[in-house]
Amino acid sequence: MAGGLATSARHAVEAGFTTARLMEYSERFLARAAQAELPQTSQIAARLLQDPPLHRRWEHTHSQLMHGVAAPSRPAAKAMELRKVTFLMLHRKAPFEYMRDRHVVGATRRKLIRSLFGSQDYAQCLVREHQAFLSSACSFICAGSLCGEVLGEAAFCEALAHYERAYTEYYRAYGDSLLAEHSGENSPVQSLLPYLRYQLKIIREHMVSGKPQQSDFEALQALYEATGDTHVLPVIQQP
Fold it and tell me: DSSP string covering 106-156, please?
């Protein structure tokens, strides 16, 4: 999808990895993503582009992220900053993804939002999280494309796909444990969460430093399988 974009972007990178060039690539990639044949990606990109106020806010936020990528003088440092952006955006979109994928609605969703974000206005918080999800998801796919198509970091992108699945499983276990706690129940994976977080941290550090081959996803998956509950979790029953 981004072959032509990647070629022109590589030339731009050689000329200077600037905020403006990174933004130009991101905007063009997002427009193409909205027309792609990947339903979830195209829907997210299209929804952001079709909402002018949200699109403007995304441009401002994404520009700040790309400025951080362009700021270092050394190419290796720029690449490291870009990798950091992918993780930042992947983590930021997780709360709403969890609520969507687990079909958390009604009183259960209110409890979860209170646990995650404190005693804030529920309606405003829900709107904010949906907007953050759309914005973060779009920045995530743009940063991922820059890593793969422009920097040619195929190994990082492959590891990132594994990490995203692992983090989704972790956040699902984390969210379920919060809801179980609210219901006065004990989650079978709650005691395991610190180990999962630590393993994800180690993997993330290897990937950010440019050594994705050291990412031990097998050890992480073994932790999940040890519980017998995080691989295929039941749908949450609403009250």
Answer: HHHHHHHHHHHH-S--HHHHHHHHHHHHHHHHHHHHHHHHIIIIIS--HHH
For residue 102, give both structure tokens.
């687990």
pLDDT of the chain along its 239 residues, tens only?
445 555 555 555 545 679 999 999 999 999 999 998 878 899 999 999 999 999 999 999 999 999 999 999 888 999 999 999 999 999 999 999 999 999 999 999 998 998 898 877 889 999 999 999 999 999 999 999 999 988 889 999 999 999 999 999 999 999 999 998 877 777 778 888 998 899 999 999 999 998 888 777 777 777 766 655 544 444 444 44
At a CB cut-off of 8 Å and minimum separation 6, what does 95 contact? 116, 129, 133, 171, 175
Residues 6+ apart with CB under 8 A from 64: none
What is the pTM (predicted TM-score) of this model?
0.86
Cα four-point dihedral sign 125, 130, 134, 140:
positive
Q: What angle do CA 112, 90, 213 make, to 5 degrees?
A: 130
